[in-house]
Specification:
Layout: H1 2-6, H2 9-24, H3 29-45, H4 51-75, H5 80-106, H6 110-119, H7 124-153, H8 163-172, H9 174-194, E1 208-209, E2 213-214, H10 219-225
Antiparallel strand pairs: 1-2
Helix pairs in contact: 2-5, 3-5, 4-5, 6-7, 7-9
Length: 226
């Protein structure tokens, strides 16, 4: 749905924070799980790019959070019957939160973020942080998938294996991903220096930004008006 990409970045960001707040204020684990499922279902209904991969990641996140919280609460002496609802509620909150911000990341291009931030007259440092945060994470995820494809090409079975093996293989991708992230950060900083980026320099926007983002300025209409 193209209108999702044209929606103002800050409107989507406000929606994500509202969803996160609602998830963490859910009255019980039953309501939390239902809310998280609704969030994931909405990603599918809105046809957000890469939602299948996100669903797999959310399932893995749920398993890891459940296991860690159950272990922690059990070691503290809490019975399993009481620890299970707490772990389920925490996992549901995290799934709903990640679903909301995944929606923002997948439907917001770095250019749209820059345009919205410039139109809002945000400080250049804030604009840079927002664009890098929401623009770099999808690129790192793509690198993560490329590393997985390289593992498959070398004969490593990472799909039809148990959860412990899948976690071990996922951690094995962490080192090359960290190296790639450092290289990307160096390339970005070098490019900023090369093009004379200065925190004291005011920026302008090349798009018309309201509730929806227009892809380009109507230069012809402005020329006719003059």
């Amino acid at each position: 749905m193209s209108w999702l990409h044209d929606l103002n970045f800050f409107a989507k960001l406000a929606l994500a924070f509202a969803v996160m707040t609602a998830a963490w204020l859910a009255p019980g684990w039953q309501a939390g799980i239902a809310f998280a499922l609704i969030c994931v279902l909405l990603l599918w209904l809105l046809r957000v790019p890469g939602v299948a991969g996100y669903t797999k990641g959310a399932a893995l996140l749920t398993a890891m959070v459940m296991a860690s919280w159950l272990l922690n609460l059990t070691l503290q002496g809490l019975p399993l019957s009481q620890a299970l609802p707490v772990a389920a509620a925490m996992a549901a909150r995290l799934v709903a939160t990640t679903a909301a911000f995944y929606f923002v990341m997948e439907t917001s291009t770095p250019g749209a973020i820059l345009a919205a931030s410039s139109a809002a007259r945000l400080p250049s440092l804030v604009t840079l942080v927002l664009s890098l945060t929401f623009g770099v994470i999808p690129m790192l995820r793509a690198d993560f998938e490329r590393i997985a494809d390289a593992q498959r090409a070398r004969g490593m079975e990472i799909d039809d294996v148990g959860l412990p093996s899948r976690l071990r293989f996922a951690l094995a991708r962490g080192v090359p991903l960290l190296v790639q992230a450092i290289r990307m950060a160096h390339a970005i900083s070098f490019s900023l220096s090369l093009y004379g980026y200065d925190l004291a320099q005011k920026r302008t926007t090349w798009r018309q930004v309201g509730l929806m983002v227009e892809p380009r300025l109507k230069i012809k209409d402005q020329a006719d008006a003059k």
